[in-house]
C-alpha cells in the first residue's frame, strides 16, 4: 500500500512539471509519475531524492523524444519547448 503521496514541482531543461511521488511501504521504494503527460511517464527510486532525479531524467527523455518527432511540449507553467518546423509555419496573407 502506498503512503506519503505528495506532489512536487520538477524543474527540467524543458520546463517545470508537477509530479506525484509516493513511498511504497511494502518495498520501501518511491514511485514517481508526471501528471502533465497522458502517456505513462513513471519511474521509481530508492529514496525521495533518487525518485526526483529519476523522474527529472524521465521527463527530459520523454520531451526529447517528442521534440525529435517535431511536436511541441507545453509545461505546467505554459512554457513551450521545441520548435515548429519552418515548412509548417503559416504566414498571414
The global form is elongated
Approximate strand percentage:
35-45%
The helicity comes to 10-25%
**Cα-to-Cα separation, first versus last residue:** 59 Å
The main sheet comes to: 4 strands, antiparallel
Briefly note the structural class of the backbone.
alpha+beta
Tally the helices: what do you get?
1
Q: Strand order within the widest sheet?
A: 1-2-3-4
Q: What is shown here, in short?
A:
By secondary structure, this protein is of the alpha+beta class. It has one helix at 48-68; strands at residues 2-12, 15-24, 30-34, 42-45, 73-74, 80-81. The chain has a four-stranded antiparallel beta sheet, covered by helices on one side. Strands 5-6 form a two-stranded antiparallel sheet.
Any overview of this molecule?
The protein has 93 residues and is α+β, with helices and mostly antiparallel strands. 23% of the residues lie in helices and 37% in strands. It contains one helix and six strands, in the order E-E-E-E-H-E-E. The protein has one helix spanning 48-68, and strands spanning 2-12, 15-24, 30-34, 42-45, 73-74, 80-81. The strands form two sheets. The protein has a four-stranded antiparallel β-sheet, with helices on one face. A two-stranded antiparallel ribbon has the order 5-6. A hairpin with a 5-residue loop joins strand 2 (15-24) and strand 3 (30-34). The longest helix has 21 residues, at 48-68. The protein is elongated. It starts with a strand and ends in a 12-residue tail after the last strand.
Amino acid at each position: 500500500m502506498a503512503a506519503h503521496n505528495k506532489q512536487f514541482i520538477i524543474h527540467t531543461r524543458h520546463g517545470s512539471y508537477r509530479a506525484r511521488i509516493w513511498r511504497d511501504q511494502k518495498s520501501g521504494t518511491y514511485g514517481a509519475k508526471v501528471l502533465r503527460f497522458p502517456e505513462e511517464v513513471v519511474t521509481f527510486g530508492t529514496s525521495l531524492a533518487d525518485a526526483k532525479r529519476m523522474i527529472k531524467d524521465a521527463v527530459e527523455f520523454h520531451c526529447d523524444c517528442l521534440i525529435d518527432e517535431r511536436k511541441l511540449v507545453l509545461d505546467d507553467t505554459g512554457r513551450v519547448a521545441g520548435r515548429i518546423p519552418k515548412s509548417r509555419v503559416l504566414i498571414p496573407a
